[in-house]
Amino acid sequence: MKPFEYFRIASVAQAMALLARYSERAAVLAGGSDLIGMMKDRLQGPKFKPPQYLIDIKGVKELNYITDQKSALKIGATTTITDIASSEMIDKKYPLLSQAARQVAVPQIRNVATLGGNLCQKPRCWYYRGALFKDCFRKGGSTCYALAGENQYNAIIGGHNCYMVYPSDLAPALTALNAKVEVASAKGNRLVPIEQFYVGPAKNVLRENILTSQEMLVGVEIPSPVATSKAIYLKIRERQAFDFAIVSVAVNLTIKDNIVTDSRIVFGGLAPYPLRSAKAETELKGKRLKDAICKSCEAALGGARPMSKNGYKVAAAKGALEAALASLI
Ligand SMILES: Cc1cc2nc3c(=O)[nH]c(=O)nc-3n(C[C@H](O)[C@H](O)[C@H](O)COP(=O)(O)OP(=O)(O)OC[C@H]3O[C@@H](n4cnc5c(N)ncnc54)[C@H](O)[C@@H]3O)c2cc1C
Fold it and tell me: Which of 54, 84, 248, 303 has the most other CB atoms within 10 Å of its CB?
C-alpha cells in the first residue's frame, strides 16, 4: 500500500475543511471495506491514483442515526448496514430496504460497512479492479478489456464504452423507494433524488456519481410509504453464502382496487448504475398485476445489448422481475 496521511475527525465541518484543502488527493474513509482493499491492491491508471489523505468519518456522531419522522425516514451516512438490517422499524415499514440490507455481503462486512460507503462504493469489473489493467477506460485509459474478455459479470445495458456494473444492493432498493441523498458541500447541504445521483460512463467514465472531490454524502431521506404500497427486493447470485448480484430487482408498487396505479422497478447488476425500467413500469400502469406481468418482464429488458458471455443475464433479469411481481399478487 502506498503511504497516506490519516485524519480521524469528529464533525462534518472538519471533513469539509479537509476536502477543501486536499480535494482529489483525499478520500472519505468510512468502514474501509471497499476503499482499503483497493488501496492495498495498488490500483492505478492514467487518471486513477490512490488517495494520499484519508478522512475517517466513522467517529462523526452527527452522521450515525436512524430517525423515523412522520413524512420520511432519515438515515445518516455512517449508520452501518447491520443497524439498517436489524432495525425492526425499518423491517416493518420499509421491508424492501430491510431485505436489501440483509443480502449485502456477510455479517462481518455489514458490521463495518456504512450506508454512505455502500452508496459510494466503486463499481465492479475485474479489469477495473485488477492492478495489471492500467489502461482500462475507468482508470483514464483507452481500452475496455471486458469487450473481448471475461465479460460474464459485466453490464448488458448502459455500458457505452465501459461495461462495469454498480454492485450496491442498497442503491436499487433506495431508488425504488424514491429516496433522496443529502450531499454536503462548502455551499451547504442539498437533497438530490437518488436517480440523479448516479452517472453512467456516457456522461463521465471516471465517476459513478455526481459528488465532486470536495463533497460528501451525509444521509438519505426516504418518503413514508403510501398505505397501499407493496414492495420486494430480490437478488440472484452465483454463490448463495454471499456474493454480489448477478441481477437484483427492487419493485415498489402502489395498488388500488387491484389496479396498479404507480410503480418503481429498479435493477441492480445489469448496468453501471441502478437501472430504473420505465418500460416495465408503463406496462403495469392501470392494469391488474396478474394480467400485466408477462408484458412488463418482456419490456424491461428491451434495450439490453449482451456481450459474448453475459447473455444469460437477460433471462435472469426477466425471471427475477417475474418472480418479484408474482410474489406481490
Ligand atoms: C467480500 C465482499 C462482498 C461484498 N458483497 C456485497 C454485496 O453483496 N452487496 C453490496 O451491496 N455490497 C457488497 N460489498 C461491498 C460492500 O458493501 C462495500 O464495501 C461497503 O458497503 C462499503 O462501505 P464502507 O463504509 O466500508 O465504505 P468505504 O470502503 O470506507 O468507502 C467506499 C467508497 O465510498 C467512499 N465513501 C464512503 N463514505 C462516503 C461518504 N459518506 N460520502 C462520500 N463518499 C464516501 C469512499 O471514499 C470510497 O471510495 C462487498 C464487499 C466485499 C469486500
Answer: 248
